[in-house]
Amino acid sequence: LVDIYALLGNAASRMEAQAKRASVALKVVSGDQLPMIPLDGEQMERVLINLIHNAIRFTPVDGEISLSAEIAEKDILIKVKDTGEGISEEDLPRIFERFYKTDQARSSGGTGLGLSIAKHIVEAHRGKIWAESINGSGAIFFISIPL
Q1: How many CA atoms, within 13 angstroms, populate the side-chain half-sphere of residue 66?
Q2: Residues whose CB falls within 8 Å of the CB of residue 76, separated by 6 or more in sequence, listed in order
């Protein structure tokens, strides 16, 4: 069983130095007490680290990334929100495809596999992952895991 806030905290602390180097604030927002849920903590931390890493890459200096979790009906909903450049409307439906890279990402390395791997890990936990964004005003990645 995994404590979701501990999971968020572990992922954030592992990415803290990278966020500092990029002059981006990284914070965990804890709310109501959440139940422990059966998860592969290492794999889910890997998903969060990938999302945080991407958020750092696409968030400008003095931007902010926040991690939060809440109960939404019969699921735990984890959010990774940034104040970065956002994802264009045409790229949004494709970002979880293997090897897919947005135009902005092509120049900055990476294989285009991170979000595809994240999706497989989340789905292996009977969960869903998706993103919402308005180009130019950040993105929010959602992970929904059934209780």
Answers
A1: 7
A2: 4, 34, 35, 37, 69, 70, 144, 145, 147
The sign one gets for the Cα dihedral 8, 13, 18, 24 is positive
Q: What is the pLDDT along the chain (147 residues), one digit of tens a residue?
A: 999 999 999 999 999 999 999 999 999 998 888 999 999 999 999 999 999 999 999 999 999 999 999 999 999 999 999 999 899 888 888 899 887 776 654 445 566 688 999 999 999 999 999 999 987 889 999 999 999
pTM of the entire structure? 0.92
Calculated CA dihedral for residues 18, 21, 22, 25, nearest 10 degrees: 70
Helix (H) or strand (E) segment spanning residue 49: helix 41-58
